[in-house]
Amino acid sequence: MKIEIKPATIENLKDLQSLNLLLRKNLINEFNHELNLEWSIEKGGEEFFRYAISNENACGFVAIADEEIIGYLIGSICDEDLSRIIPISAEIDSFFVSEKFQSLGIGTRLYSAFIDWARSKNIKRIRVETPAGNVRGIKFYQKCGMHNHDLILECEI
Predict the structure, then answer these.
(1) Please, what is the end-to-end C-alpha distance for the chain in angstroms?
(2) Taking a C-beta distance cutoff of 8 angstroms, is the pair 130, 137 a contact?
(3) Which residues pair with 65 in a beta bridge?
(4) What are the tens digits of pLDDT across the range 112-139?
(5) Are strands 58-65 and 3-7 parallel, antiparallel or unpaired?
(6) Is residue 19 predicted with pLDDT exceeding 80?
(7) Taking 80 as the threshold, does the pLDDT of residue 109 lie above it?
(8) Mean pLDDT in residue range 36-48
(9) Is 153 domain-assigned?
(10) Is 20 inside any structural domain?
């Protein structure tokens, strides 16, 4: 099966929203019960994907198999953090590959497309936030050369 990685276009909007809905369902079931499941298909989700597709400081890539979008990666340039002496960075904002297509190298190809985009913007550092319990995702990112940096702790008050 031939898998293509292409820049996302506005024609991919509904597919991106549908895949993000699947991602959110998985995250809610496994890690984070506080997510708004419907965000993907609400105004905020649509605006998020439209921005990623159309803004020069953001990017979107899709993985296509047999004319079906089976995965995507959305990234953006982070706001400059003047409290730290680090180069401007880019962040993976949303990343998903359909379950039946996982472990086939598709995620690595989407990640590589993001790295190429970031380098084209002279970005020297990338980051991603993922649930602490997402062991499989964390292992993927570590395999790609990322390491633990910040830890966010929360509690109800």
Answers:
(1) 51
(2) yes
(3) 3, 68
(4) 999 999 999 999 899 999 888 888 999 9
(5) antiparallel
(6) yes
(7) yes
(8) 91
(9) no
(10) yes
Buried (b) or exposed (e) across 125-156, using 16+ Cβ within 10 A? ebebebeeebeebbebbeeeebeeeeeeeeee
**Structure-token pair, residue 103:** 């472990």
The total number of structural domains that make up the chain: 1
Is the pTM higher than 0.70? The answer reads yes
The residue type at 122 = N
pLDDT for residue 63:
98
Place of tokens 């995507």: 72
| Residue % of the chain over a pLDDT of 70 | 96
Check whether 84 has a pLDDT greater than 70: no
Helices 43-54 + 13-30 axis angle, to 10? 120
- Asked if residue 157 belongs to a domain, the reply is no
How far, in Å, CA of 92 to CA of 114, rounded? 8
Q: What residue type is assigned to position 40 of the chain?
A: S
Q: Which residue has the tokens 């509904």?
A: 14
Burial class (CB in 10 A: 0-12, 13-18, 19+), 11: exposed
Check which CATH number belongs to the domain holding 63 and give it: 3.40.630.30
